[in-house]
Amino acid sequence: DAGVIQSPRHEVTEMGQEVTLRCKPISGHDYLFWYRQTMMRGLELLIYFNNNVPIDDSGMPEDRFSAKMPNASFSTLKIQPSEPRDSAVYFCASSLSYRDEQFFGPGTRLTVL
Amino acid sequence: DQQVKQNSPSLSVQEGRISILNCDYTNSMFDYFLWYKKYPAEGPTFLISISSIKDKNEDGRFTVFLNKSAKHLSLHIVPSQPGDSAVYFCAGAYKLSFGAGTTVTVRA
Fold first, then answer.
1. Pair type for strands A42-50 and A53-56
2. Do B101 and B2 form a contact (C-beta atoms < 8 A)?
3. Dihedral, CA atoms, A8, A14, A16, A17, nearest 10 degrees?
4. A16: which DSSP letter?
5. Distance of CA A44 to CAs A78, B11, B18, B58, B100, Å?
6. Do B95 and A56 touch (CB under 8 A)?
7. Which of A27, B21, B56, B81 is most buried, taking the most CB atoms under 10 A from its CB?
8. What pLDDT tens digit does each residue of chain A (113 aa) get?
9. Does the beta-carbon distance from B32 to A105 stay under 8 Å?
10. Which residues of chain B are within 8 Å of residue A41 when distances are taken between CB atoms?
């Protein structure tokens, strides 16, 4: 398996624009997680899914953020409208169960100007 | 509120010596803890875990100790190697919460 795949790897956009980050989890993993990494707050869990269903989105910072998982092999994290403070590295991870080790993708570095 | 805290943002150690990384937590509901290692421009990778029913777990050069009464865990790396230079995150599982990370630099 190729591991968790994220795209794009880098995204530069202007304030107010819509940003969509994509993730393909490892086949067979029932859990998918979205994280944001910043210098100030480290790794923050934004939302996670179990069998394509969002379980806990309490980490999503604002209504500008939304995440979907239309099927077991694809998830998106959307920011609309984007703001400069959204600049961070966003990671997607998947695992067999909630407490199993998570396999992380390489991340998407987002810069909002 | 950060339920998992890594109060040392960085650690420098000589090759061959012991690296000790510390982590404190506030949520007594955590029943499982994990350590991840992260190299620049890569996603974190799982390193070692420990269940709250244990006080020690060892895997090669890596040992994690858990002190539930103090709500404290530590990761020991012995001996430290240059390839261990990375950012290390500890995480508590119940509601997953990561610390801010400790950057380890191993000097040759």
1. antiparallel
2. no
3. -40
4. T
5. 16, 22, 29, 27, 9
6. yes
7. B21
8. 689 999 999 999 999 999 999 999 999 999 999 999 988 788 899 999 999 999 999 999 889 999 999 999 999 999 999 999 999 999 999 999 888 889 999 999 999 99
9. no
10. 2, 100
